[in-house]
Amino acid sequence: MKFFRILATTLLTLSLLGAAQARSLDVIRKDGRIIVATEGQFAPFNYFKGSTLTGFEVELAELVTQRMGLKTEWKTVGFDALLTGLQQDRWDLVIASHGVTPERAKAVTFTAPHYCSGGIVVSLDPAIRSAKDLAGKVVAVQTGTSYLESVQKIPGIKEMKNFPTDVDARSALLSHRVDAWVTDRFVAKEMIAKAPNAGMKLGDMVFVERIAAAVAKGNQALADAWSKALAQTMADGSYTALSQKYFGEDVRCH
Ligand code: ARG
């Protein structure tokens, strides 16, 4: 009896460990394809053009994985599910504009950063520009983002409204349900350029961050292989060409 109980416990433990085990670089290489997850609602970084997933991060990931000798299989899921999915081994890598934060670094392993940016204030009211101006105001941010974390720390904020996507947060601003929207600097620039008559004004940066892809915690060989291939795209001109196409400038971290 005791033997069977021990055997059952051992098997259960092993299967639980197995379930949480991320695919190693070797396993991925043998398979020939890497499963990459993103959100698909964060233009111009990852978004849908009709039914096609595209964007700076999507095209960059294709360049990087090609250099790694792999095919990419894409998955798109809600922003909230992306990093936890790594722990559950639902995909191998996430690229969705995640800022490298100490909190996230406890749960996942980050690769080298693929761009540097930051949160910026967008408002319809030209008097709302800086972090200081947000005192007494209602601010829209996407749930689970670094924008939420940093805006929360601004003294005197009246209310933070959370939205499942950044697109919803922007809609809240355009329909006057909030006083300001805090989003990525390049996202804001693109939206203002695309809708010049919407009255959106670009304010100041609230904070800066390094943006990187992430793999399951401790899957270091995979993170290193990605970072190495990314560095090659940054050295051979392909990163610059892609960055120029999307932003008219090189967005790498300096
Ligand atoms: N850079 C911000 C963060 O680190 C926002 C990322 C939002 N990404 C997205 N795919 N919606 O949280």
From TrEMBL:
Record keywords: Signal
Signal sequence region: 1-22
Organism in which the protein naturally occurs: Extensimonas vulgaris
SUPFAM superfamilies, A to Z: Periplasmic binding protein-like II (SSF53850)
Protein name: Amino acid ABC transporter substrate-binding protein (PAAT family)
Highest taxon above the source species: Bacteria
InterPro entries linked to this entry: Solute-binding_3/MltF_N
SMART domains: PBPb
